[in-house]
Amino acid sequence: MAAKYENAVKKPGALSPRVKWLRDYYFEGTHRKWNNEYNPYTTGTPWDTQFDELTYYIVPETYTFLPTFTQSFKQISQVVPVDGDFWKKSLVERKADFTKKCVVERLPMEILPGDLLCGARFNMMYSMCLTKAQQKERDKLVKEARKSMLFLFDHGYGNSGATSGHLIPDYKKIIEKGFKAEYEYLELLYNQLTNAERKGPKGAQLRAMMTACTMPKELAEKYSAYCKQQAEKCTDPKRRQELLVMAANTAKVPWNGAENFYEAVQSLWLTHMLVMSDEKYPGPGVSFGRIDQYLYPYYQKSIEDGMSEDFMKEILGCFWFHCNTAYDAQIRVGGNQGITAGFGQLLTLSGMGKNGEDMTNDLTYLFLDVIDDMSPILEPKPNVRLHKGSPEKLLNKVVDMISTSQGAPFLLNFDERSMAGMMREAQYFGDKIDLDNVCEYAPVGCLENTMVGNDRSGTVDNNLNLLKALELVYANGKDMMPYEDKMGGKPSKLTQDGPQTGELRDLDTWDKFWDAYCTQTKYIIQKMVDNYELSESIRAKFNPTPYLSTLVTGCAEKGLDVTQGGAEISFVTMEGVTFATTVDSLLAVKYLVYDNKECTLEELVKALRANWEGYEVLQAKAQFRAPKYGRDDDEADAMAQRVMKMWSDEVWSHETKCTHRRFRPGMLSWNYWIGSSYILHASANGRKNPQFLSNAICPSNGADINGPTSNANSVGTALGGKSEHGDYGKYVNYLPNGASHTITFNTSLIRDPAHKEKFKSFLKGYIENGGTALQINILDPDVLRDAQAHPQDYRHLLVRITGYNAYFVSVGKELQDEIIARESHKGY
Amino acid sequence: MKVLDIQRMSTEDGPGLRTTVFFKGCPLSCTWCHNPESISPKSHVEWLGVRCIGCRTCEAVCPQKGIRLDETGVHTSEKCTACGACTTACPTQALEMKGKDYAVDALFDAVMKDRAYWGEAGGVTLSGGEVTLQWKEALDLLKKLKAAGVHTAVDTCGLTQQSVFEALLPYTDLFLYDLKLFDDDAHRRFTGQSNALIFSNFAFLTAQGARIWVRTPIIPGATDTDDNIRGLATLVQNKVEKWELCAFNNLCRDKYERLGRDWDFKAAGLIEKETMEHLTALAIAAGAQSTVWSGATARTED
Fold first, then answer.
1. Distance from the B197 Cα atom to the nearest Cα atom in chain A, whole angstroms
2. Where are the domains of chain A?
């Protein structure tokens, strides 16, 4: 990096020596001597496998590695001998026994220098614990599921698979009462079962969950003994004392309830890390929920007892370090942080209470300080909830933090719009979500809203390219063009996959075209639902997670594992991808073919098949003359809302057969909008393959020509806007899961206190008019350089310096350089 | 009324977050003008070369034969009536119509879309060009905005009849008032008009107790002299809430090129930060205590 840009990258704040050491050590990555790489364990049967490829069906970049992963874990797994009666037990009990055995007896036990929290290694890849017959059956089913999933992906429908994480376990109850209370509760339920029930799956499930409850107990006790040992050896009296406190903490929690802040964080960490052990896929959306709320009583108690906030920050600094070690799982794949940066142990701060009151407290600010001091760092991912009653002090802090980072170090969640979505969902679980408790919602993973402690809604399990429906319309239910098989290089055959919605010449009115589009949308949703059934039923049959089930209300009561739909609130989410590209394509078809008769539908589809080559004038009209979503244009946004209502209504009508989980709609695109842009053909909005598709609910690149406020208004309208009969107050929200929205701002907007006030004003407006969640990026000089190189992608990038305003790409190179240099220095 | 542009989420046209309406047409013709496309009261067609794909649709659709593409770009001739045929047909929007007609109600609806973002401090600013050239329509708009409880600001060069300000005053919460040159000869030379009326209107508004932010562009070789700032300070004194000295910037060179016009300041560099600080101190010392400066200054670090 050129020296003159150095100030443009945020640096961590003043950290205590121990936290600084841990943070620096983490970033040494593959150079570290210690890491949290997967520890693989097998029962030793020749057919045993460990790696569960189903959890990776939503990660297309791993598809080619799946057989390698499976085989390599088989080869390197250590044998952990099992007892004689092991194979006589039910699968769920075998899993509980084996996981516990690996965690308590096999996982290496270490405490890092200066670390204040016990619980270092947790990434495990352990046996599926299947019998030979079960493994054979599973392998056969997986083969079928893989084939279906690859078809979906290769043909541009998207991806889907039953994956792990993406929920907020009931950490609060463990911190308060410990696993002991949970164990006793399970015992009580078990004793109420009839003999027949005890012999059946219900009994097995409860027994397995009881075993699972003792896993953290025994691990903590082992850590306690280890701390004592280390204390005896330690020559530094201060560190010895620390180790003795750690020994006392782990002797108590998480088996018993915590009584102060330190114990509570220790209890939380051990409980949390074992969820990641249990699921064998660390981090993806195993989230903490409203951490500043449920830790607050312990914070107050410890403040009364005389604990300093600085020490609390040190404890949290250690907590931050451990959350990041989740990435060590695959540390040797893909650089320092493993194959993905997309885990997302999300924590939630602030937000409203039951009566609309604001719940910000001193601990909220403590967390914000820690976030500020630790960032830039990936985990845990913070999310700040804002609402109409958010206090100025919080907003000031939020804006200050945004102004010193390239992108906000947190995601903002907007309560009113989010809660409207949850209330829409309440129609299906009316006794579990109501106006009294909807404020307790929290996001998981990236921004996916769920309830807490009793909800698993598979928030990234299905990712549907909405645009595929249009391709099917263009070819009367077949693929628009053959897809190339990336491995074999052969083009696919064009088969009648979708319904026949008419030859192009017969779609002679806009209404007929719209009907055809709706029919194909219903088909692609059904296709995704059918595909999901395959991996969901395999997981339900072969992959119980009894430990996680102890942390999700409903599983004990129903005697059902969380993988079998045990959670009280149990949805599967379908995330719509390519929304704006689809809406803009519909608008372009309507504008070009039906309203203005610039071309026939046949000519338009011909242009798309040619990737617009030779049709530049028509392409330009599609891009620049047709209306677009994202600029507060009433006609375009009405189309966006129409598409949203149509596809989301359709999603609600489906349910899994094996687990009876209803589908619910959302819009998170993770990175799929980039990957799929190479697969999906040219689109009617003027986009060529492989130009990027649109991201989540964001307008297409360059379409939001009227700035952030109009962009936000369009997003709010697409979600349903406001009405007298809203879902929550006047707010309507078709997407209970929420929708990812990113806006990039100019640095000059937050350059001084007066301008920070203006930015606050924008956030307050967003609460009124915008979406459920917002990621803020601050324009960095690299974007401007990219704009200089690719002016076609940045036609509407406006620069404003006091009285002057102009499109960045329309000013000369020399002046662009001047603006870039100024952005680099934030020098206005 | 003829509007050049509506800018949403404006941060530079008064307090808070605002929507700014740029009216078209200005009675002054300042030689340094940053937005020269706003001077003419008529609509005109502008060509943005980076967008053009050379398809010649404009030539084909022009009923006057008043537009052509040559090796240097697309040019309109005096035959152009700004009828809009080419700007509506241009597939890439390389041709833009500068100046759009609005009815008051439609303009009101357009600006109100951002109401949620204004908060208590922000609102709507009517700017230009010069808004007072279309004061009757502007007054109707201001009345509607005030009736809806919106904070209003008027950004003006001050050159109009006093009666216009009398009419606008009850519906305007804040005036952004430009004072450029104290010396009348210089004022005539650089802006084409005398400053007498501008100064008397300023005196009128201050006497009426209007809330005012004065703005003075600091232009090298024109307004950046000690004498000028000292002179203007005698007018400003402490009669206004803020006096902002705005540093000249040269980013509008391209706009002049697009308009096919030469520009006296095309070679001028940015003002030194020291000059801005010096002039601000001078203004404060001369009794205008609310003086601040803003804008991009020449960089010294590289």
1. 24
2. 1-33+288-421+435-444+741-746+756-776, 36-129+170-281, 139-165+452-695, 780-828
